[in-house]
Amino acid sequence: MTRYLKDQCSSSLSAIKVGNTQIRKLHSYSSCEVALLKVTENKGISTMSLLQSYRGLSPRAKLSFGIGLLAWGVIGLQLSDKAEEKLGYTPTEEDKKALERMTPKIHTVTRDKP
Hints:
Blueprint: E1 2-7, E2 15-18, E3 21-28, E4 35-41, H1 50-55, H2 59-87, H3 93-102
Antiparallel strand pairs: 1-4, 2-3, 3-4
């Protein structure tokens, strides 16, 4: 939404931002009686999807974001075993045997050639 306002003696004003509202000077008169100001309300990035926001990033920012995600994953993998031990979630031998029984087995069958 764009509105136009008139302000008294704002000849030194070029642009200000208050909250989500940006005020920019369009014209200033030498008599310092009236300055026409353009007021634009910033609606933020809520209209953009997450993918559009990502595509709008610079290649360097995309690279940094990707490296950050990879680092987060590696750190999580490294620390998860230590956290399991500290919290007492290490599997017992019974649990390991039960998991082994549930693991699918692959059996190969030899076929005669016709």
